[in-house]
Write a structure and sequence with these properties.
Elements: E1 7-9, H1 17-34, E2 39-44, H2 47-54, H3 64-74, E3 78-83, H4 90-102, E4 106-108, H5 116-123
Parallel strand pairs: 2-3
Antiparallel strand pairs: 1-4
Helix pairs in contact: 1-3
Length: 134
Amino acid sequence: MENFIGCFATYYNIQNSLFAKLLTAIKVVQLAKAKGWLCIWLECDSKLVVDIFHGSMEVPWRLRNLWNHCRRLLGSMLFKVSHIFREGNQCADLLANHGVLHKLDTWWNAIPNFLLNEFNRNRFALPSYRFRNL
């Protein structure tokens, strides 16, 4: 499908959201480099992860070795990172839920069926909303 190059879901068995999101962002950089993609724009719904990539936040000590390797990879890539609100990140949320539910590392070269509707909403810049009961 137009503009789709791949996606993945993984399971880390980690309860700390920052750790899981930063680990996933590092894995994205590693996967992109392995596939020869030298230009990346990472959108993340964690402002803390974005701050780490911008250098204004410390990396959790358990991830420092992986982080240092990631920074070396980024030195040979054109890289941009930006914050996106959760409502704009529905595809990532569905993939994360898939990883937690199935407890597997999975890569897709074509859009998986459970992601198709949200991918098309995103592709056509249709808004997503989150409603809460007050």
